[in-house]
Amino acid sequence: EQISGKFSTEFDMKGSLGDDLSPDLTTLLGEGTVELSGAKLSGNKVLNNLAERFKLPQLKSIDIPKSWTIIKLVNGKIFVEPFDFKFQDIAMNIAGSHSLLNIMDYGLLMDVPSNKLGPAKGLVDGLLAQSPLPGITPASLPDVLRFRIGLTGDMSNPKMDIKLLGKGGSTSPVKDFVGDQVDKVKEEFDKQKDAALKQAED
Question: Rounded to two decimals, what is the model's pTM?
Fold first, then answer.
């Protein structure tokens, strides 16, 4: 996995030191913001799989001109609150978590112009067959399709669950999706934080 570009962070963190006085990563507790400027993500198995499933090779290397998000860290797990970015004409929103062992649980919302999905016709047809959507058929697609993608498992061998939500192309992400992701990240973070504080008291 490779990410390059400019990053700026503001982060408050606390934790314990090991016997060698190095930070014990499993005890770290923190919260802050990360701003990306001119970032580039490539050489990533998740992106490679996404590019393969959607038959969009450009997804193997993504440029993020400017974006920011809130990150929380507890018990060796990193929680990322929802943030938006656009690559070429594909709009995305992502949120979730991953551990220091690279086990992830992310949700990705992706708006893709239907004229880019010709090579992925089999994927779209299959999703519509599984879950038909009113007013949308393989022969009559809206200009932009919105997908929800669950990314779980090891980052080196990711599992991907793709659902077609319907028409995309709005100026902001689906509020229900963003709300669900915020609640999920917050709930898991608070759970891990309470467990860490209880362990510290013991």
Answer: 0.79
